[in-house]
Amino acid sequence: GGFDGASIKPVAAYQVPFAKAVRDGADIPTMAVGLLGDVVGAEAIVTDGEADFVALARGALDDPNWALHARHELGAEDYDLWPRQTNRVRERDRSLGLRSFQGS
Fold first, then answer.
1. Is 101 domain-assigned?
2. Is residue 20 domain-resident?
3. How many domains does the chain have?
4. pTM for the complete prediction?
5. More confident site: 42 or 101
6. Disulfide check for 39: which of 15, 69, 70, 96 has CB 3.0–4.6 Å away?
7. Is the pLDDT of residue 39 over 70?
8. Which pLDDT belongs to residue 33?
9. What is the DSSP string of the chain?
10. What is the spatial distance between Cα 25 and Cα 91, in angstroms, rounded to a whole number?
11. Range of the domain at 47
């Protein structure tokens, strides 16, 4: 906002190249923003060195447990970081065979 007539189209990860340019040019840690709700894509941004952090807004508003769901999508098989009150999620996933639950 604030620039009338800007031609940047807001598509997924559209601001990541800016974060990388600042990171590379100024040699400082950067945070990528801009429609980054995809777990695998967000992980790749950090892993590939395009940014040091990923900021979520809409994704976190839509799913307050986004980080916990992302952790599972990326391979975590325990529920150690989940609030105790969400034990039903673990039991549901166990009964539906959605996780292997080794060590939990």
1. no
2. yes
3. 1
4. 0.72
5. 42
6. 70
7. yes
8. 92
9. ---TT------TTTTHHHHHHHHHHH----EE-SS---HHHHHHHHHTTS-SEE--SHHHHH-TTHHHHHHHHTT----TTS-GGGHHHHHHHHHHT-S--TT-
10. 48
11. 16-96
